[in-house]
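Progress note, sequence design subtask.
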């Protein structure tokens, strides 16, 4: 079983082999490149992750990989977001786009993104609805089969029939959401 740090090491080694600056340059010039890079990075990392036949260990490794890759892609594509946000006594939110302030002020112009690793993670969704009453603005990245029409689900499974959206499209979808809501957040080019 790989540790979280080992999975992240595989991810960042893969990113370095492709070229972090190349990924950054390409995605900031054309957000559609994000799909190509997410697919390439996920494919290479998944072949390197050897966690045996234990399904829960594999799901954990894929969840760590997808979360770290999402954070990296949000950064290189200069999309505004806040990560690992704790609000009062509610569970930690994995990602808020564009910011917690906008989520509190105008929830229709904000997205909550949650990584669903297991059944226990899905149990906290009702608590997130108090923070984001617009269910269509709660986006889930799931490594387990998950059936709901209430939220937008991005699949990490090879069985794409279980999911409505491919994880590789998430950066483009976030960018489109921000354009549609008229987001004017300051974007930093690193």
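Output:
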């Amino acid at each position: 079983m790989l540790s979280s740090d080992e999975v992240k090491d595989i991810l960042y080694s893969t990113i370095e082999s492709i070229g972090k600056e190349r990924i950054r340059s390409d995605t900031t010039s054309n957000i559609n490149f994000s799909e190509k890079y997410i697919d390439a990075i996920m494919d290479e990392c998944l072949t390197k992750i050897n966690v045996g036949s234990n399904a829960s260990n594999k799901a954990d490794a894929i969840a760590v990989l997808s979360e770290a890759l999402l954070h990296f892609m949000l950064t290189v594509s200069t999309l505004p977001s806040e990560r690992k946000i704790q609000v009062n006594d509610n569970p930690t939110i994995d990602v808020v786009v564009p910011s917690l302030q906008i989520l509190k002020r105008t929830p229709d112009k904000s997205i909550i993104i949650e990584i669903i690793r297991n059944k226990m993670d899905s149990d906290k969704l009702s608590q997130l609805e108090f923070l984001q009453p617009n269910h269509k603005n709660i986006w889930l990245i799931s490594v387990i089969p998950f059936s709901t029409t209430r939220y937008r689900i991005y699949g990490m499974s090879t069985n794409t029939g279980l999911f409505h959206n491919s994880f590789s499209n998430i950066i483009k979808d976030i960018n489109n959401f921000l354009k549609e809501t008229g987001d004017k957040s300051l974007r930093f080019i690193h």
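Residues 109 and 178 are 8 Å apart (CA to CA). Work on this subtask will continue into the next period as scheduled.
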